[in-house]
Design brief:
magnesium ion binding, thiamine pyrophosphate, Transketolase, 11 helices, THDP-binding, two-stranded antiparallel ribbon, Transketolase_N
Length: 275
């Protein structure tokens, strides 16, 4: 039942992402589809929060370092009941609380304004350290991309988290192997990435980020004595073959007649799951 709850939520979140994306005709839809299982595992299975009180002091903090993944997070916030599914229809429009890049000042449940890549983990380390000083048992979960591993500030933060023994900190890295400038391996090779995190003193798990059982197992394995990182190999556009095979998939332009095809392909791949 645990796995199925997350799986069904991820399916609905993918539909939400397609519906939001259609309003703009383009965007970071591929990342939202690829990371849906990761975000569903967090919000449906892991995070302690109160949907009606996003600023509850004892909540677990989820930091979206990759602000351009906001479309995926909005889908998760709707599944968690923090915002309504109906509000998703306002995505990217004037006066909306759901801008195309995540803004903490606009959106309930958005902890930081992401987008300046490489800053999320530094904020997460400070937040986790502050919570520990306060005696607050809440955890901090930081979502970042493989492209952010190009940034030196990420590795400074990784070393700082280990130095302070932040067992209340979990990092999740979406390894979809693609950046704005091309394949991640071609922009700046980071492999063997698991060894690098381990050398910084982190507990490391590497899993298929589109395998719900594997994701939940990785969360079950995290350390409470030192920071943990879950490296998630994902596929951009996951669940929609039409988009999985797009050559230029970082920022997608999807034609008007393709959106319904995308929905149908998604539904075909999730037989037995209700939207």
């Amino acid at each position: 039942m645990r796995t199925e709850r997350v799986r069904q939520a991820a399916y609905r979140m993918r539909h939400h992402a397609l519906n939001m994306g259609e309003a703009q005709g383009q965007g970071y839809v591929g990342q939202a589809l690829g990371a849906a299982d990761m975000l569903a595992a967090v919000y449906i299975d892991q995070l302690t929060f109160r949907a009606d009180d996003p600023h509850w002091a004892d909540r677990d903090r989820f930091l979206l370092s990759t602000g351009h993944y906001a479309i995926g997070l909005y889908a998760a916030l709707a599944e968690a009941g923090i915002i309504s599914v109906e509000e998703l229809d306002t995505y990217g429009s004037d006066e909306s609380r759901l801008p195309m890049s995540g803004m903490a000042s606009y959106t309930p449940g958005m902890e930081i304004s992401g987008g300046s890549l490489g800053h999320g983990l530094t904020v997460a380390v400070g937040m986790a350290l502050g919570l520990r000083h306060q005696g607050n048992p809440a955890r901090v979960i930081n979502f970042l991309s493989d492209g952010e591993l190009d940034e030196g500030s990420t590795w400074e933060a990784a070393m700082g988290a280990s130095h302070h023994g932040l067992g209340n900190l979990i990092a999740m890295v979406d390894i979809n192997a693609l950046q704005a400038d091309g394949p991640t391996a071609g922009v700046l090779r980071t492999e063997p990435v698991a060894d690098k995190w381990a050398a910084c003193g982190w507990h490391v798990a590497r899993v298929d980020g589109n395998d719900v059982d594997a994701l939940l197992g990785a969360f079950d394995s995290v350390s409470t004595d030192k920071p943990s990182v879950i490296l998630c190999d994902t596929r951009i556009g996951r669940g929609v073959p039409l988009l999985e095979n797009r050559e230029k998939a970082h920022f997608m332009r999807i034609e008007a007649d393709e959106w319904q095809i995308c929905r149908e392909q998604l539904t075909e791949g999730y037989q037995g799951v209700s939207a």
